[in-house]
Amino acid sequence: MMTESRLKKRSLIFAGGGTGGHLLPGIAVAEQLASMDDFSITFIGSNRPVEQQIIERSGYQHLGLASSPSNELKSAPWSFFWNNGRACLQARRILRAERPAAVIGLGGFASVPLIMAASWLNIPIVLLEQNIIPGRANRFLFSRANVICTSFAETRLPKPHSGRPLIAFTGNPVREQMTHLETTPKSEPSEILLLVLGGSQGARAVNQAVLSLLEQGRDALPRRLHVVHQTGETDWKYAVQEYQKLQKHDSELRVTVEPFINDLAEWYSKADLVISRAGATTLAELACTGCPTVLIPYPNSIGDHQLINAQFYEAEGAAVLVEQMADAEVTAHNLQTAVVELLHDSTKRNSLSEVMQKLALPEASRKVADEIMALIAH
User: Fold this and answer.
1) Which residues, in sequence order, are CB contacts of 357 under 8 Å at separation 6+?
2) Which CATH number fits domain 179-358: 3.40.980.10, 3.40.50.2000, 3.10.180.10, 3.40.50.720?
3) Which of 76, 279, 352, 362 has its CA at a distance of 20 to 30 angstroms from the CA of residue 35?
4) Among 102-111, 156-165, 260-269, which is the least confidently predicted range?
5) Does 324 count as an annotated binding residue?
6) Per-residue pLDDT tens for 127-153?
7) Was 19 annotated as part of a binding site?
């Protein structure tokens, strides 16, 4: 599995993923650790294509285990226990062979087999919790961790038992290009750039609301408009077709549509306004880049964590919150009201940007790396 040259180095394993929201903080920490020591770093998670693509682009080795998410416990219990039992055994074999200095859990169902196996083998464990409301995996694994690094001071974790785990408020790690962002001139300076993000897996409701906004509310929007839209893989072809229809009747509408945007830093630096889900990693990037933002939290997130994340940013005056309603037309109408107001009010956008930047924690990657280094030094 690991080459001989890799085995000579101290090894660290990052466990979990499934989505960019879990993986990107891990990559940021891995890059920080690589600058501090000569580690062999491997990411082990699920077999989801988006996970493989994100890790491979980062240049790290990726291994996938055939684990099952918790929502399959009711729908396919035999498959759930079989897959996760097998994944735990496979994880234990990997850890016995590799003997990493630590395992860093990134959250999500794919982190569970590795963290369980690390606990059985007494390998130091660090968990990263991105949200105010912890996810199922981290709640389940809480007592097995040595250290939990939180993104919010307000993160709602149980009380540690006998001093374990240590809870460290570090902030949510973001990649270095986000913390040293320089404003990139637009190719068309008079053009308004609207950046739309539905998360690494896309968001059907957000995609439809934005398309409805452009179809029904176009007259109220600035004429020279460039929409950069990350749709997710599922909606990409549909969105491309809908944008082509809009452009037939609107020569001043420019569109860039991608299933997944690799270099978000470039678009953050140019964006006049962002429409986004309220995942914690995206919020951390938005804070570091100071983008004025309209947040549409995913309504079915575990423990309503996206809504709670968004309410925190709204209460601070850093973002505008538009809740996704059961009636798609109501969501589209509320989004149109917020977007039109902000695109015609640069003072309000500047205010949101200033407050957003005050919430940034650009040293989060280093702080998490310091916690890991302190743990493995013992």
Assistant:
1) 287, 288, 290
2) 3.40.50.2000
3) 279
4) 156-165
5) no
6) 999 999 998 899 999 999 999 999 999
7) yes
